[in-house]
Design a protein that fits this description.
The structure is a homodimer. By secondary structure, chain A is of the alpha/beta class. Chain A contains eleven helices and 13 strands. In chain A, a hairpin with a 6-residue loop joins strand 9 and strand 10.
Chain lengths: 349, 349
């Protein structure tokens, strides 16, 4: 018998976008927010850094849950908190999908989903996106044991409406439908208002994108009390305190500063739409984005070639060597200045 | 089919010690350090709180690994970093034990181990501690598929020597032997110096106890490069960034401040030994502790009764309703003043 478990021998892990350490790059590769976190977040964390770090943090994240529940118009028992939405997704896969087959997901979506399937013995039934990279909701009204959809989808940036999501949720009563809304604040319609009506809907969100807090690691799941209880059972069988004291404090402040959130997310939407317009003029194909990134295709040039050339010019974007999308690049929306530099670099290539 | 996975239905999670929110208690119930973190930790985190929180943290924790490797006299490839030693343990169970039977562990040990067994389909072979709560190392020289031992053991506080640990590791070549050293800095002998000689030894440690950083969530595994690679494969299939930016920075500073670490840990050892002496005089049975807690038994009074009475007096300790140890209390070592208050309260009960 091997020293390792069978699973540990065979896993092929997720590979995150590069985090260069020298700081000379324009980073448009990991969908981070180009704006800093709200000044109230910085202030709140600085105030919290002190003697209390010797104590374990609140394992329930009660204050944070309360603030997020208020923001969502729900109650604390509808909220699950984890170490970034990746950990929340991992726990959701364990709670709802582990050991099941025929779990539906798009063939092109967040590339961490297949990794969770492999880790938790889930057999996915991958549903091809349509030619235009949209989801045909009728594809999800078939026999299954669960559904997961990113909305807006990644790396496509394309979104379903709330009504379309509701159609899928309503058709799958008794089975968990997970909607991963990491990017919803940039123009999508959140499914959270449906949570009170559908006890099979779980919505996952994060502070990494629209709250500029990728460095702090806070994600949420929102759903019916029974679903959240199940997730807590799994979470408390792994690590009682995955969200540290400072992350709890910073996250709370971020959710409370509605004004800063509105301002920065609207700025990003504006820059995204301007960038899209410029790229369309240059002949690029750009999918209609509701996210803080765009998914683009040069009509002639090879995507990997452009990716490498941009890297030489100290601009990082994301290239996926994957069927159907290897002719495209995913480009995060930076500041107006960063996007100008990006457009200029593209023009030169 | 249920909405939940079969596992999520059946799990019985770990229950951590109470974290009261009102701050009026003397907390001797979760083995936290009574001293604040080093001033250099506070300073380093305050300096790091800023715009960089918008970016993902270094998924490799490279700088932190380097500092810890230097401290341990090893190289970076021997170090794994996780969100507290609980997450590290969880990943170690997945990496080495998942799906195996006959994994050896003491019958009385950290109560999270059986929870991991249940989550990851590990069939443990629980080896009874001897009558005096020590481990008989010869019990671990039998056919098995892995070994995990807390050293010092919890909640007993009793430790094996490095030579005794080496005996177990040497007899189990080809199978992972995990030594959980959460409490080793309070008088135990670490097995880390054996890591270069035994490719089956994994040592797990934490900054929550001897570095006063329970609130920051940083734990380590130290072992042969091949073991660490396996753990990274599992970790990167769950969450690329479980240790946030501020935790990485604070942890680095904590390891670098050797002087503060030495001073506080020696203080705790001193207070522990003084408290032990007083309790022995009062007729208590106190196991010989190498940890920052003691495991005590009143010769007459019921442990649960004392636990409740202490709680009324605003002193929290830990009581385990578990066979063989339900007549004992686990008491974390606080400051000299806190332990005086504890002794006084005991005398009154």
């Amino acid at each position: 018998m091997s020293l390792f478990s069978e699973k540990a021998e065979s896993l092929i892990p997720y590979v995150p976008g590069e985090q260069p350490k020298d700081g000379v790059y324009i980073k448009l590769n990991t969908n981070e927010n180009p704006y800093p976190p709200s000044p109230t977040v910085i202030e709140a964390i600085k105030t919290a850094v002190g003697d209390k770090l010797r104590l374990y943090p609140d394992p329930e994240c009660s204050e944070l849950k309360k603030v997020y529940a208020d923001y969502m118009g729900l109650s604390e028992e509808n909220i699950f908190v984890g170490n970034g939405s990746d950990e929340v997704l991992s726990i959701a896969f364990q709670t709802f999908f582990m050991g099941k087959k025929d779990v539906l997901m798009p063939d092109i979506s967040y590339s961490f989903y297949p990794v969770y399937c492999s880790l938790y013995d889930v057999v996915a039934l991958e549903i091809p996106l349509k030619e235009d990279f949209t989801i045909d909701t009728s594809d999800y009204i078939i026999s299954n044991n669960g559904v997961i959809i990113a909305n807006p989808n990644a790396p496509t940036s394309v979104a379903l409406s709330r009504d379309q999501i509701e159609g899928i949720v309503a058709a799958n009563r008794g089975r968990a439908v997970i909607v991963d809304e990491a990017y919803v604040d940039f123009g999508g319609e959140s499914a959270v208002p449906l949570v009170n009506r559908y006890d099979n809907l779980l919505v996952i969100s994060t502070l990494s994108k629209s709250r500029s807090l990728a460095g702090l690691r806070v994600g949420f799941a929102v759903g019916n009390k029974v679903l959240i209880e199940g997730m807590n059972r799994v979470k408390n069988s792994i690590n009682s305190y995955p969200v540290d004291l400072l992350a709890q404090v910073g996250a709370k402040a971020a959710i409370l500063d509605r004004e800063y959130f509105e301002k920065t997310r609207l700025d990003i939407i504006k820059v995204r739409d301007q960038t899209t317009e410029q790229l369309l003029k240059m002949g690029y194909d750009v999918l209609p984005s509701k996210a803080n990134f765009i998914f683009i295709k040069n009509p002639e040039k090879n995507a990997e070639y452009i990716f490498k050339k941009l890297r030489e010019k100290k601009i990082l974007v994301r290239y996926f060597k994957q069927e159907r999308i290897s002719d495209r690049l995913r480009v995060s929306i930076g500041t107006a200045e960063e996007m100008e530099a990006f457009i200029k670099a593209l023009a030169e290539i």
